[in-house]
UniProtKB/TrEMBL annotation:
Record keywords: NAD, Oxidoreductase
Enzyme Commission designation: 1.1.1.22
Name of the top EC class for this enzyme: oxidoreductase
UDP-glucose/GDP-mannose dehydrogenase C-terminal domain location: 334-450
Protein name: UDP-glucose 6-dehydrogenase
Family matches, as Gene3D superfamilies: Cytochrome c1, transmembrane anchor, C-terminal, NAD(P)-binding Rossmann-like Domain
Matching InterPro entries: 6-PGluconate_DH-like_C_sf (IPR008927), NAD(P)-bd_dom_sf (IPR036291), UDP-Glc/GDP-Man (IPR017476), UDP-Glc/GDP-Man_DH_C (IPR014027), UDP-Glc/GDP-Man_DH_C_sf (IPR036220), UDP-Glc/GDP-Man_DH_dimer (IPR014026), UDP-Glc/GDP-Man_DH_N (IPR001732), UDPglc_DH_euk (IPR028356)
Pathway: Nucleotide-sugar biosynthesis; UDP-alpha-D-glucuronate biosynthesis; UDP-alpha-D-glucuronate from UDP-alpha-D-glucose: step 1/1
Catalytic activity field: UDP-alpha-D-glucose + 2 NAD(+) + H2O = UDP-alpha-D-glucuronate + 2 NADH + 3 H(+)
Active site: C278 (nucleophile)
Length: 469
């Protein structure tokens, strides 16, 4: 069995960075080099004050312990490839924006470029591991590219090892994963390569949590897991609409159904809509795959999960407008939270972006506060959401504030878009004193104690609750 001494990870993003930093921490005998074409990102990973390019609880500690010991970050992709005996491909696979499959298929350009680079550079045999989330049978395309371009006496074994970490809990998830999934060809070489990667994970993951399966099952399992998780959220959000219309309470409904051990209690939190770089992209990817296989009904079934999510976001912003006497023109709305979930600075597909765009279209004034998201990121997201609006126009309507209290000053309404823990301890008395009256709170994250806020004087609308304001 080949033994892994040197690992290279292509892609120093939200997955490649934390995943391989944890491998380095847990496997001091393995030299891990994480490479990326983006020099600024690499510089941030190497920054002397550990101002890392992504915010993730516990990550800095891991990098502090391993960086310079057996963990290295570099923009020299070729050297990383050349030296390694195992290479993770952890590049981005966004939804295609143009061409065949635009709007649903995965853009595999980055995976292909990384694969071609491996083929061009490698002069010794490598285990190549798909870490990126890819459509079923991508490993086959990688194998064909690698074999067509390989040098004599160089063989490539391809594995699929999808990543299941969630942002905000990445380090916790990586330290104690529910499972590690490794897919390989069921040939003797494929199984040997699979065992070599299993050995790496066995340094800290119990053996019974390391699942080995066929390549295509592994690729499909990743899409399936994300589709089923997102489906749970769309299901609970669909029920939240019924709750609002009937007076039922979504928290009580979620708790009641979650007690059924077949359903389980996790991931049933109604919200303003799921965001993040994965759910929508991976479901659309599954939809495209189903359509390509002529499975129209299957494609439609999964597509509905995304449709319901869009509906949830629209429904929430409409509720804000309806409640504020059918107009928010010229009214100031404080949006608390811009990240797609708490404990991350990531804003990809964040529901806050859609809400703020809707408020802008109604010509409201918007104050934003988020404890982690960079201001430049907020401006870039809002510009992308309203391409016909020049940035100066956006900046006349939108302000970024440095605290929740500041964002709420002189506002008519507060919208909670991200469930940051600090929003639970806001001094609501002071917020109320500084707001125009009647003062509204719209809780899109089931975060506040509505009764306490009502006692202060607020009018409170909570997702999934149809009670009086
Ligand atoms: P990301 O955009 O944060 O990082 C990808 C990095 O790859 C970028 O820094 C980019 O510069 C680099 N890159 C692209 N092509 C390259 C090349 N040819 N050579 C060197 N570097 C290159 O993306 P991410 O969020 O880390 O996601 C990576 C993959 O993991 C995606 O397929 C995604 O679906 C999957 N995934 C993401 C998450 C998540 O929570 N973000 C979780 C599980 C799986
Ligand atoms: C997800 C998967 O959970 C992870 O396994 C996969 O590797 C990547 O995609 P991530 O997108 O980082 O992870 O975060 P997740 O916790 O799944 O949340 C996704 C979105 O759903 C967030 O906007 C979150 O706020 C929302 N959500 C989550 C809900 O609205 N309700 C819930 O009960 C759970």
């Amino acid at each position: 069995m080949p033994r892994v001494n040197k690992i290279c990870c292509i892609g120093a993003g939200y997955v490649g960075g934390p995943t391989c930093a944890v491998i380095a921490l847990k496997c001091p005998h393995i030299r891990v080099t994480i490479v990326d074409l983006n020099q600024a990102r690499i510089d941030a990973w190497n920054s002397p004050d550990f101002h890392l390019p992504i915010y993730e609880p516990g990550l800095e500690d891991v990098v502090r312990k391993a960086r310079g010991r057996n963990l290295f970050f570099s923009s020299d992709v070729d050297k990383g490839i050349q030296e390694a005996d195992l290479i993770f491909v952890s590049v981005n696979t966004p939804t295609k924006k143009s061409g065949v499959g635009a709007g649903s298929a995965a853009d595999l350009n980055y995976v292909e470029l990384a694969t071609r680079r491996i083929a061009a550079i490698a002069t010794s045999s490598k285990i190549v591991v798909e870490k990126s989330t890819v459509p079923c049978r991508t490993a086959e395309s990688m194998r064909i590219i690698l074999e067509a371009n390989s040098k004599p006496n160089t063989r490539f074994d391809i594995l699929s090892n999808p990543e299941f970490l969630a942002e905000g809990t990445a380090i916790k998830d990586l330290f104690a994963p529910d499972r590690v999934l490794i897919g390989s060809l069921q040939t003797s070489e494929g199984k040997e390569a699979c065992q070599a990667l299993c050995e790496v994970y066995r340094n800290w993951v119990p053996n019974d949590k390391i699942l080995t399966v066929g390549l295509w099952s592994s690729e499909l399992s990743k899409l399936a897991a994300n589709a089923m998780l997102a489906q749970r959220i769309s299901s609970i959000n669909a029920l939240s609409a019924i709750c609002e219309a009937t007076g039922a309470n979504i928290d009580e409904v979620a708790h009641s159904i979650g007690q059924d051990s077949r359903i389980g209690s996790k991931f049933l939190r109604a919200s303003v809509g799921f965001g993040g770089s994965c759910f929508q992209k991976d479901i659309l990817n599954l939809v495209y795959l189903s359509e390509s296989l002529n499975l129209k009904e299957v494609a439609e079934y999964w597509k509905q999960v995304v449709t319901m999510n869009e509906y949830q976001k629209r429904r929430f912003s409409k509720r804000v407008v309806d409640t504020l006497f059918n107009t928010i023109t010229g009214k100031r709305i404080a949006v608390l939270g811009f990240a797609f979930k708490a404990d991350t600075g990531d804003t990809r597909e964040s529901a806050a972006i859609t809400l703020i765009r809707d408020f802008q279209e109604e010509r409201a004034l918007v104050n934003i506060y988020d404890p982690q998201v960079e201001h430049s990121q907020i401006w870039s997201d809002l510009s992308e959401a309203s391409p016909s609006m020049p940035l100066e126009t956006i900046q006349r309507q939108v302000s970024i504030c440095s605290s929740a209290l500041e964002a709420c000053r002189n506002a008519e309404a507060v919208v909670i878009a991200t469930e940051w823990a600090e929003f639970k301890t806001i001094d609501w008395q002071s917020v109320y004193a500084g707001m125009n009256k009647p003062a509204f709170v719209f809780d899109g994250r089931l975060l506040v104690n509505a009764e306490e806020l009502r006692a202060i004087g607020f009018k409170v609308a909570v997702i999934g609750r149809g009670e009086r304001l």
